[in-house]
Amino acid sequence: MTYFLQSGDCMELMERLDNNSIDLVLTDIPYNHVNRSSNGLRTLDKEDADILTFDLEGFAKEIFRVSKGSIYIFCEHFQLAELGAVFDKLKCSMRVCTWEKTNPSPMNGQHIWLSSTESCLFIKKPGAVFNEHCKSAVWRESVERSIKNHPTPKPVLLMKRLIEASSNPGDTVLDPCMGSASVGLACLMSDRNFIGYDISLDYVTKASIRLSEFNKEDNTWLKKLNKRAI
Fold first, then answer.
1. Number of CB atoms found within 10 A of residue 165's CB
2. Alpha helices by DSSP H, 67-103
3. pTM for this model (two decimals)
4. Residue 227 pLDDT more than 80?
5. CA–CA distance, 154 with 143 (Å, rounded to integer)
C-alpha cells in the first residue's frame, strides 16, 4: 500500500483531487476552542493544532465533492450544528457518534464530570461501504498518551476500526488535517492507501518519519496498541 503526504492549505490541495476520487475521508479538524494555559495534570495548550484555518461550510462541501464513500469528522460539539446543516442540505445520511475515552484525564474530576468523550459526525453517501452491522455509535477506546509528535493524536486502534468499517482493502483514505498521522498508520495496518495533508510542515515531517518506521511484518505496534484496548 502507498501513502502520500503534503504540507499546505488543505482547501487548496483538495482542489487538485477529482470528484468522487476518494473512498473514505477520516479526519480530526482543529476544534478552535480548547487552547489555554496548561497545568500539572494535562497539556491544555494545543498550539497551532487547535487553530482552524478554513471555513467549515466550504470544507464540508469540498470533502463531500472528493469523497465517493463515507466521511468521518471529529469535531467540537459547537461545530456539529454548522457541519450537520451543510450535509443535511446535501441529503446525506448522518449520525453523531461518540468516542468514549476509557482512560480520561482526572483533571477537575472532584468538581465536574470528566472530559471523557469527543464527538464525531459520520456522513454516508448512497452505496458507501459499511462493514459493521447493528453496532453502537459509541466507540470505547483509550487515549494514546505515548505519542509525542503531536498534541492531539487520535488512537490508532479506533482509526483502524473506522477505516475497516467504511472501506475495503486497496481503497484510498484521505485525512486533510493529518496531524500525527494516526489515520495513515491505521491505513498501513489495514492495507489501504493513504493521502494526508497538514498545514504544518513540522507535523508532515514527523508523520513521514512515523509512517516510514512502520513494518507490517513486525506486529510490535499492534501488540502495544492491543494492550491499551479496553
1. 18
2. 77-89
3. 0.88
4. no
5. 7
